[in-house]
Design brief:
Elements: E1 7-11, E2 17-23, E3 26-33, H1 39-53, E4 63-67, H2 73-90, E5 94-97, H3 99-104, E6 113-121, E7 124-130, E8 136-143, H4 145-149, E9 156-159, H5 161-165, H6 167-173, E10 177-179, H7 190-196, H8 207-212, H9 222-237
Parallel strand pairs: 1-4, 4-5, 6-9, 9-10
Antiparallel strand pairs: 1-2, 2-3, 6-7, 7-8
């Protein structure tokens, strides 16, 4: 049964950014931008515009949904800071979502199992493998594309920007595959609303729970990697 809540959804886990709004239990606004501007410049203006066009205030929101990664370290941090700021100031509950499973849901009711490949840079991807019924076959992880492809032995449909970047690796793997259409690769925040609107009851506001919500990076940041290298070099030099 569809609920009648007002819900804001935020997804800036990629270079693109998306917000979506449900008013009285109906999706009324979806915004998506993939431009060369930072999330900090565009996220709040997108939210403000959506609320204004739907005659809502932040205080009218019953729930905030947020994609916590994996993906862009900066984008995820900005989205999380924005969501928590709105939540704390108006005591609005937050519902976090994994970005890999969200992207897989763009292929809902596919006849094939769904392989998600998101470009993680440095020759790696964020990936997970889901059945056509939504069950997890291979849990989310960060690896070389060849590693996950070696585990696939059935016909699949592949979604995510990693599929285009590592297309030659996919061909070399000799698996039976088809690629998702370009519109299916969009990280739309409205996917989270589809889930939230099916809830019989939204979560209650819980400050301690919200404070503990952390990004799901799946790997260390480049800064952390470089710091560990320097520390290891210093130890070896002693």
């Amino acid at each position: 049964m569809i609920n009648r809540y007002n819900i804001l959804a935020i997804n800036s886990s990629a270079s693109s950014g998306s917000i979506a709004l449900a008013k009285d239990g109906k999706i009324t606004q979806v915004s998506y931008l993939d431009v060369k501007r930072t999330h900090s410049e565009r996220l709040m203006p997108m939210i403000d515009l959506a609320l204004k066009q739907n005659n809502l205030q932040v205080a009218d929101l019953d729930l905030i949904c947020i994609a916590i990664g994996p993906g862009s370290f900066t984008g995820i941090r900005i989205a999380m800071a924005t969501a928590k700021g709105l939540s704390y100031s108006h005591k609005i509950p937050i519902l976090p979502f994994d970005n890999l499973s969200l992207l897989a849901e763009n292929l809902f009711a596919s006849a094939r199992n769904r392989l998600v490949m998101i470009d993680a840079r440095m020759g790696e991807i964020y990936t997970a493998f889901y059945s056509k019924n939504g069950k997890t076959i291979i849990s989310p992880k960060n690896c070389k594309p060849e590693e996950i492809l070696a585990e696939i032995n059935e016909p699949v449909i592949i979604i995510g920007d990693g599929a285009e970047k590592y297309y030659n690796s996919i061909l070399d793997s000799k698996i039976d595959f088809i690629l998702a259409k370009p519109h299916q690769n969009l990280d739309l925040a409205s996917t989270m609303l589809s889930y939230a609107l099916e809830l019989d009851k939204i979560p209650e506001y819980d400050f301690e729970y919200i404070a503990k919500i952390e990004p799901n990076y799946l790997r260390k940041s480049q800064a952390e990697i470089e710091k560990e290298k320097r520390e290891n070099n210093n130890l070896q030099g002693k």
